[in-house]
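Cross-posting from the modeling subforum.

Setting up a comparison between two proteins and wanted a second pair of eyes on the formatting. Protein 1 (sequence, then structure tokens):
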Amino acid sequence: MKRKDWWRGGILGIIGFLLSPLSWWNDAFINIPLAIAFGWVVALFYKPAFQPAVVIGYWLTNVLGFVLMHKGAEQLRSGGEARPYSQKSLLRDLAISFLYTGLIVVLLKLKILQPFGDYLKGVGSG
């Protein structure tokens, strides 16, 4: 295995792990903030789309994380030879992402996650 392939696979795997929901800390400090930021950007143009945008943004970070992690592991294992991402792997990654996305929907419905301006409304009114 070439050193370049080892580094490339390792970096893809690390980025994938950071985006995947496989541990509480990376989900809490990376995926959810990215999803909320995505929701805020969408809400700048159309505020009612905040909740769906957060869910979609969160789901996309999870799926991207699993795909990158899988690709990194494949590259490490195969010595740099790219193998296709199987349909079975994609279905597994999608199923796990849907489960975690359900949690985000619950947090949105409980108003724990909301548009940025709505957080500020509660600050001044003690």
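Protein 2 (same layout):
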Amino acid sequence: MTKYIKEYERIIKERLGKRVSPEKLSEWIDYHKNQITHLQDERIIHLLITLNFGICFLLAVLAYLILQQFILIVLGCLFFVLLVPYIFHYYFLENTTQRWYGYEKKLYDKKSALKKN
């Protein structure tokens, strides 16, 4: 996913620097909005997964505090080890989504400037 995002951002930056017709720009805007929708879907899935791992981690800790079984510490550590990368990946997806909203605004601004000319 990270490779795809970086490649797409390279393409969108390249497109922002080109002179094109308003029709072509409208196509790019539609495509970009579609890409944002896909990214939002990915983001919500990762949010749900992250929340589930967080809840499982907290339940393992709570269960350890109640039952005092060593295996629950191991289970909690496993959930924590999985939770941390998901938090970082979700953070990456969230920041990417915000950045892509900015690209969308730039595309619309470029379209408005073309219509004025």
